[in-house]
Design a protein that fits this description.
Elements: H1 3-29, E1 33-37, H2 40-50, E2 56-59, H3 63-67, H4 70-76, E3 80-83, H5 91-103, E4 106-109, E5 113-115, E6 120-124, H6 128-134, E7 139-145, E8 149-150, H7 153-171, H8 178-181, E9 196-200, E10 208-214
Parallel strand pairs: 1-10, 2-3, 2-4, 4-7, 5-8, 7-10
Antiparallel strand pairs: 5-6, 6-9
Helix pairs in contact: 5-6
The structure holds iron/sulfur cluster (SF4).
């Protein structure tokens, strides 16, 4: 990176740290064990320290977790990984994987959005991810890039529909309008991806709930 670009990147990094640490402080008041990681590598090290090597790890649909290379890295250190993003899976096998994800020792997920005051906002099509975020007797770990931070729940919901979902439906080659227009038109498509909305206002009662806010752009 040349000197000029380094200067601008340093400003972006400082902003990311400011806003990321602000959100971490709010998340802590809402019952989460929250940490700020300046880089993806730092986030990986924190996650390794939170996930025992013998633990099974359920990974729902999350571009962030995959972008961090966690599936390969965790599998390499011996963790059993359950995930359903495998196009070769038959319908009944996929259903089994979805249940295994929810029943793993650790449920490791991204989030569509997080607000400045610490609400965690997600919209789901199948409902498995919002189910695992809302309830489980396992450890919950949410990892989220600073690009997911929104002022409030209203802007978070707009973000999910206009920013997070279009590239996902595009990735899956779905026939929803947003897959080609790049924005939400509140469709009634048979493939509509937006079906279940979850707003976690606080960490759920009794849950060992962690959030890692990463000072980089991750996922959609
Ligand atoms: S409601 Fe339809 S158009 Fe809007 S983001 Fe969801 S799938 Fe896309």
């Amino acid at each position: 990176m040349d000197q000029e670009r380094e200067k601008w990147q340093a400003l972006r990094d400082e902003y990311a740290e400011n806003v990321g640490k602000s959100v971490v402080a709010r998340l802590e008041t809402r019952g989460y064990k929250a940490r700020y990681a300046a880089t993806a590598e730092e986030a990986r090290q924190i996650l390794f320290s939170l996930i025992p090597e013998e633990a099974s790890v359920g990974i729902p649909g999350s571009a962030t977790v995959r972008e961090l290379g966690l599936m390969e890295a965790l599998a390499k250190r011996g963790n059993r990984i359950y995930q359903h993003w495998d196009p070769a899976l038959k319908a009944e096998e996929k259903a089994g994987r979805l249940k295994d994800e929810l029943n793993s020792d650790v449920f490791l997920s991204g989030s569509n959005a997080v607000t400045l005051d610490g609400a965690i906002v997600n919209i789901d099509g199948t409902g498995n991810r919002v189910a695992g975020l809302a309830w489980g007797d396992n450890r919950l770990i949410i990892v989220v890039g600073v690009n997911k931070i929104c002022r409030d729940v209203e802007s978070a919901l707009v973000r999910v529909r206009d920013v997070a979902t279009p590239p996902n439906t595009q990735r899956l080659k779905m026939t929803t309008p947003c897959a080609t227009t790049g924005f939400c038109s509140d469709c009634n498509s048979p493939q509509r991806a937006c079906r279940a909305v979850l707003i976690l206002e606080r960490a759920p009662f009794g849950r060992d709930a962690h959030v890692i806010v990463v000072g980089e752009t991750l996922g959609f």
